[in-house]
Write a structure and sequence with these properties.
The complex is a heterodimer of chains A (509) and B (348).
Chain A: E1 3-14, E2 17-28, E3 32-36, H1 43-50, E4 58-63, E5 66-68, H2 73-78, E6 81-84, H3 96-101, E7 107-108, E8 111-112, H4 114-127, H5 143-156, E9 161-165, H6 173-188, E10 192-197, H7 200-206, E11 209-214, E12 217-223, H8 229-237, E13 255-265, E14 271-281, E15 285-289, H9 296-303, E16 311-316, E17 319-320, H10 326-331, E18 334-337, H11 341-345, H12 352-356, E19 367-368, E20 371-372, H13 374-387, H14 404-417, E21 422-426, H15 434-449, E22 453-458, H16 461-467, E23 470-475, E24 478-483, H17 490-497, H18 502-508
Parallel strand pairs in A: 3-10, 3-11, 6-9, 9-10, 15-22, 15-23, 18-21, 21-22
Antiparallel strand pairs in A: 1-2, 1-4, 4-5, 7-8, 11-12, 13-14, 13-16, 16-17, 19-20, 23-24
Helix pairs in contact in A: 14-15
Chain B: H1 2-29, H2 34-46, H3 49-74, H4 82-99, H5 104-133, H6 137-160, H7 179-184, H8 193-210, H9 212-222, H10 224-229, H11 234-260, H12 273-283, H13 288-305, H14 307-312, H15 316-331, H16 333-347
Helix pairs in contact in B: 1-2, 1-15, 1-16, 2-3, 2-13, 3-8, 3-11, 3-12, 3-13, 4-5, 4-6, 4-11, 4-12, 5-6, 5-11, 8-9, 8-13, 9-11, 12-13, 13-15
Classes of the chains: A alpha/beta (509), B mainly alpha (348).
Chain lengths: 509, 348
Amino acid sequence: MDYVIEMLNIRKEFPGIVANDDITVQLKKGEIHALLGENGAGKSTLMNVLFGLYQPELGEIRVKGKKVNIADPNVANQLGIGMVHQHFMLVEPFTVTQNIILGSEPTKHGKINIKKAEREVQELSDRYGLQVDATAKISDISVGMQQRVEILKTLYRGADVLIFDEPTAVLTPQEIKELMEIMKALIAEGKSIILITHKLKEIMQICDRCTVIRKGKGIGTVNVAETNVTELAALMVGRDVSFKTEKKTAEPTNTVLEIKDLFVKDSRKVNMVKGLNLDVRAGEIVGIAGVDGNGQSELIEAITGLKKTNAGSIRLNEKEISNLSPRKVTESGVGHIPQDRHKFGLVLDFPIGENIVLQTYYKNPYSKYKILNYKEIYQKAESLISEYDVRTPSAYTKARALSGGNQQKAIIAREVDRSPALLIAAQPTRGLDVGAIEFIHRKLIEERDKGKAILLVSFELDEILDVSDRIAVIFDGKIVANVSPENTNEQELGLLMAGSNQEKAGDNQ
Amino acid sequence: MNSNKWFNILVPIISVFIGILAGAIIMLGFGYNPIQGYVALFNGAFGDPYFFGETIRQTTPYILTGLAIAFAFRTGLFNIGAEGQVIVGWLAAVWIGTTVEAPMIIHIPLALIVAALAGAIWGFIPGVLKARLGVHEVIVTIMMNYIALYSANAIIRNVLTNNADKTEMIAPSASLASEWLEGLTYFSRMHYGILIALFAAMIMWFIIERTNIGYELKSVGYNQHASKYAGMSVKRNIVLAMVISGAFAGLAGSMEGLGTYGNMTVSSGFSNIGFDGIAVALLGANSAIGVVLAAFLFGALKVGALNMPTQAGVPNELVDIIIALIIFFVASSYIIRWIILRFKKEGK
């Protein structure tokens, strides 16, 4: 058999846990091979073993049939293995070419031959149809383009096998489509691809075979043509998963959030929200669909008091809340599940228990006469931990030590438990696996049924279509369309998000 | 959690040990007997009650500057200006001590409070500049150190005296000196200040670990974004941290003014009490109890070193090198941490 990479019966242990147990992955030349598993299943560990960052305890790795010992990433590079990281490793003020040659600069008499490098990079880009401008600065190009620079980086170093680590997590639907074209072009040129993902739809669309890992164990490899989404999900989670979130029809009542003619500038003093109008009523979930960078972050930061507004009004239950301090906004009944849970949602070096009271620590019973009552704090934390099934060794464990899904559950526990009239959920399921996503969607719908107003911001159209009762499409700082999830589809939303249907906005408003 | 705690205790101990070892190699290299040298160091710090008293005396201001710097560190600030805050605290304490007449029960607390206030103001200025304008506190505090040094000299010469090199001695009613402690330690300069320093350590622990203020300060230190999201005022906390930090350093100055010396002398350079506090805070892992222990070690080294030339014949310059080496390894405990982790990894 002509396998380019074989990882046979790999076992990797860390103190106290077995991260990989008897996993076998065989990559055929010219195929796209999916590596499917929940968060924490051991996908990254396995790839780090392949990339030489970890040494396996048992098992062997073969490249083109020959047994190899990959002692460090340099060896992996020499063997033609390249990794496209989920979090890009790019120097923002550098150009595309400067980033690509970083670490293996072509020099002449100690001087970098940047012209030659630029030519080579441009040739590579053209050959694979990547459409990257070799002289552009990283800070000036889109996220999708930056990812292509990462791809170019591996190609420039002569990679034959490319590992993509959750590549679509940061992309818009259009960019995802383009990425898939690029992957096909790579295959056509004789490359092989391992795609790490937990998005089943993508696997069905583009992969040839799929290896499933569950809780560190290799479950097996299936031919994608002979399987379906339901079967894959069941293999990954170990039980049947419902994809369509069950929910009753919304029964919205009074308006909770009312935004009129809102203008917000970003940190560069550029208007990002430009005359936005939006209503959210009690008992409904309004989904904001849009491509990243169309004013979503600024909108949320303006509502929650993290950013000043320049004009317009934000009313919560008929009280003006624009330009109040974040604490005042929180106290007036706004909950916020932030998009970036590490930056905003948690103090990672605080124990999980102290994170639970991040907005309420100064209130009775957690604090009296400005002195904290840790007994009360941890009692509360422990009750929320068990109610929301946050998997943590104890309430005293640092938030940093928890998995992404459990960190998010802790944030949701905190925000939902305060029972705010308006709950803002920004990308609440980003990077989470099917089980956690199911849980979070159920919680959002539960809150809706309790009569709360929910504002959901997501770049995942599936999520928007699945959970929302009403969809507001944001483009260039304005809501350009209000559609009902029953009467639309991804294609139409995609077009609206690209701003192609401005007239419809007028009809709906 | 538990192994982490052990790790935090183990690292400083190993650091000190390696430092002592490096000092020994230097002494050997220059032909001195390291054992004699270290015996002299030990005797000089603990050998008889007088030396022990001096060690405690030296430990006192170290505890307070260590606390000052640790406190700022907890909020993510590097208060390199403890030195200047010590100077203004010292000056303020001596000023009150020499010019005010009051019974002891009022005079001492008044002098201490004014010293703490002076230090607090010296911390407030860089705090406000950082919070409002984003000016880095390291730059401002370094400059504030020079302003403090030369202003204090000018005030001593022109305001407190008529062009003399030092102030008058403070009134007995403002003095922390204790005949009882002096008698106990064969007339060392040990004074009641140590009690104030230990009390300050308890205060620091209480603020950081038990109060709303401490929770906010730590939160801001760990993650400003999340703190803002949670409704805390990042700016207010930065200023507050610098003010409290400055107050501790100001108190450290008053220990010298009211306890050890009883006056203040025109000085051409820094006392280094504030700068040494940085190392004390680092070695003490920014915790109150750690700072007390680290300050004691620094005090012992500083005082014990004085005995090395006389008892072991190690020249003064070499003594300075040896002490610097010990401090170097202590301060670079980061390296030791890294090595231990590395061994752990390999062992598994």
